[in-house]
Structures are given as structure tokens and as C-alpha cells.
Write a sequence for this structure.
């Protein structure tokens, strides 16, 4: 069947742009397929992100479509090469759902992450004990499977130890921090973890206080993953029970960008947020 691939956001964007270029050049799918020694179904799979596009194929297609703009060519080449970039989690790939794998890939490759969680502390900031309680409450798993996903979550947090870690911005409602998931001791440890991580230059944590009277409607939890030029791609992850949606259409991304701006307007500045977190932690710890 050839190089069947997970339909990541980058592959979908690459495929959509290739299709637009082909149609603008008035090249039929059959003509494009012939140029890369394939068939119409291969072009269809490439344009829907279900089949990888090799660098040689990409060069041939861009020449066929008469794409001379170097910036366009550079962006498409970057999209294609990013799709094959090795990731730390690939050793576990066979055990993971496609939507879960895409989330891990987004976290691994993004240079900026803006995350809002309306119910729990985000996974990249969780302690193991807190994560265990969250996973158990979300969908009870056999112990062996639970330990596997806990290990995976802890391993994913190592992105903050990379030579060039992503910029990570998190906004969390105060109510999430006051809910004693796992009990006072587990929650106090989690809050101390937030305080510790906030000392990293790339991590910013802001809290929406309970006293905030302005309501910022978001429709639920989401994260925005950003990639710099030449990729120039922003992807929004929206979670639901059992999976996640990945949105990359400009209008959808812009809508969530505006929602993020409204959340920031209602949140405390970073330093005041950390002071509030420390105050809540002290309330939970034994005198």
C-alpha cells in the first residue's frame, strides 16, 4: 500500500495546498499522478494527508504546477520534512490511538503552546500522583495500562529540559486549583510543582481568580500549537471524551486566538498568579 501515514495537521495542510496549486495550474489528478509515476488514488491520498509526499515527488509536483515563488516552495518543503521528523514517543506508536499520537507530535514539535484547561491542571504540568487520579477519574484503566500512560506523560514533560524548549503559556481557573483531586497532600504537591515550573523562563502560568466577574466563553478546554516560518502553521487541539479534534483552518484558529485573548484579559498577571497558587498550597499543607 506504500507509505500510509497518520493524517497529522501538517500533512493535511500540505495536501490542501498541493491540491489548490494543482487546480490553479489546471492539472488533472491523472496528469499529476503520471508525473510521479503513481495513480489517481495516490494523488488523492496525498492531497488528503493520508500518504506522505517524498521530497522528490514534491519537487516534481511543484515544477509541474509551475510554482516559482521561493517562499511558497520553502514552506511546502518544510511542511513535508516536518511530517517525517523523528519524535521521542514513536517507540510507543503501535500502542497509541491516532488522535493521541497527533497530540504528542504537536507538543513535541511546536515552538509555542498556549493551553487552557477548564477542569484540571494540564498534563505537561501534572505530578505523577495527580495525573494518576485524573486518568483514573477520566476512564478507569487496568493498572498496567495506567502505568504505561503515566510513564508516557512524565516522559513528555521532558520537553522543558530540551536545549530549545517551547514557550509554554497556561491559563487555569482558580477553581481547578482549589479542587482537591487526590486529597490535600496530592493537591499541595501539584501546586508546589506549578510554582517550581513557573520559575522556568519559558513557562508562564496565569490564574483566573474566582473574584473575576467577567466571563470569557471558550466552549471548553483547548490548546494552540504554533510553528514558526517557514512552516507557518497554527493548530488548535480541542479535547472530548475519548479523543481530540485538531483544527487548522484559518477562521477556526483565529476564533480560538480571540478566545485566548479574552482569557488573558481576565487572568491575574503571572507573579500575582503564583502568589495565589502559593497561598492555596499553604492552606492545604499541615500546620
Amino acid at each position: 500500500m506504500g507509505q500510509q501515514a497518520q493524517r497529522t495537521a501538517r500533512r493535511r495542510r500540505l495536501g490542501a495546498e498541493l491540491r489548490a496549486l494543482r487546480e490553479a495550474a489546471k492539472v488533472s489528478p491523472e496528469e499529476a499522478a503520471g508525473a510521479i509515476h503513481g495513480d489517481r488514488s495516490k494523488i488523492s491520498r496525498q492531497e488528503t494527508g493520508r500518504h506522505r509526499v517524498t521530497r522528490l515527488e514534491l519537487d516534481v509536483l511543484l515544477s509541474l504546477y509551475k510554482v516559482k515563488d521561493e517562499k511558497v516552495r520553502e514552506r511546502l518543503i518544510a511542511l513535508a520534512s516536518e511530517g517525517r521528523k523523528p519524535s521521542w514517543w514513536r517507540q510507543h506508536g503501535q500502542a497509541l490511538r491516532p488522535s493521541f499520537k497527533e497530540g504528542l507530535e504537536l507538543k513535541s514539535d511546536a515552538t509555542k503552546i498556549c493551553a487552557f484547561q477548564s477542569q484540571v491542571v494540564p498534563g505537561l504540568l501534572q505530578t505523577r500522583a495527580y495525573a494518576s487520579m485524573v486518568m483514573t477519574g477520566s476512564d478507569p484503566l487496568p493498572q498496567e495500562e495506567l502505568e504505561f500512560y503515566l510513564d508516557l506523560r512524565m516522559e513528555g514533560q521532558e520537553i522543558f529540559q530540551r536545549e530549545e524548549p517551547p514557550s509554554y503559556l497556561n491559563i487555569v481557573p482558580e477553581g481547578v486549583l482549589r479542587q482537591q483531586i487526590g486529597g490535600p497532600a496530592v493537591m499541595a504537591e501539584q501546586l508546589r510543582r506549578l510554582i517550581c515550573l513557573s520559575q522556568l523562563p519559558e513557562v508562564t502560568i496565569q490564574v483566573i481568580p474566582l473574584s473575576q466577574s467577567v466571563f470569557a466563553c471558550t466552549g471548553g478546554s483547548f490548546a494552540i500549537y504554533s510553528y514558526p516560518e517557514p512552516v507557518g502553521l497554527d493548530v488548535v487541539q480541542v479535547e472530548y471524551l475519548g479523543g481530540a479534534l485538531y483544527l487548522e483552518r484559518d477562521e477556526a484558529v483565529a476564533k480560538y486566538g480571540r478566545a485566548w485573548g479574552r482569557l488573558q484579559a481576565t487572568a491575574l498577571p503571572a507573579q500575582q498568579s503564583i502568589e495565589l497558587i502559593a497561598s492555596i498550597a499553604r492552606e492545604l499543607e499541615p500546620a
About this structure: The first strand starts at residue 112 and ends at 116.
